[in-house]
């Protein structure tokens, strides 16, 4: 995909930074004596206007997302130098020759909250009934939490994904989209963390699980038309996801490392070799905002995933064979 003249690049222009610095928050939910690890979150708002460049000659035709018919990179302008894939020249705004058409689009001013849940385990395994169904109990609690957040109107969108494989490291992953103009993402984080502590309280459930919550930015996206800017919940029951999670130590998220994200995340492999029958819609890379170690989450959305599951899972053994990060197959359980 990189370096092709058939690709369209979308970029975003940064506006004045937000002066308010969010207070420390915690990524990890802990049920151990109420202690939590403190982290900081931060970020800048973005505003864009539309410009389009076609080769060496500026296009005179009105261009919009609705009229684009080619696969696109969508990268926030402040991340362009770090996440524009290695080997692809920087987009330019003058009349010089460029490999990419460039369209500046309005930024939705959204932040994504991701909640990773490990499999619940009984507090007293020896007393566990053979008829117990911890997976169903966890699914019910996670669905109730999603519904409560939806009713509170603090997030504009949300979805709960469930792993379709047995004994997955993360059987459930929740996504929430927060509009920065309407709600403070840090306050939403604190509220969700408190709600998670209450909903999954081991004293009432008699089960324990690890919960990892963090605020993420969508730092790069490969999108296939028709384009829908920003996060969008799936529209069909056949939609499925290939999700990969990576964690790197603090300071290892250098520019050279991030410019090669297509390779170490497996995004390039997914884009090139996923069968057309699965209906690839987008591949989005998320990067955590908290200080310290960084988490990257790659979400590959396919509109016909569940209709051709064997084809969709073709590349998963190869991704796992690299012994790098975690990869799982997911489908939608609940949305709002």
From TrEMBL:
Residues 27-47 have a biased composition (Polar residues). Signal peptide: none annotated. InterPro entries: DUF7153. Residues 156-331 form the DUF7153 domain. Pfam families: DUF7153. Residues 1-47 are annotated as: Disordered. This is DUF7153 domain-containing protein. It comes from Pediculus humanus subsp. corporis.
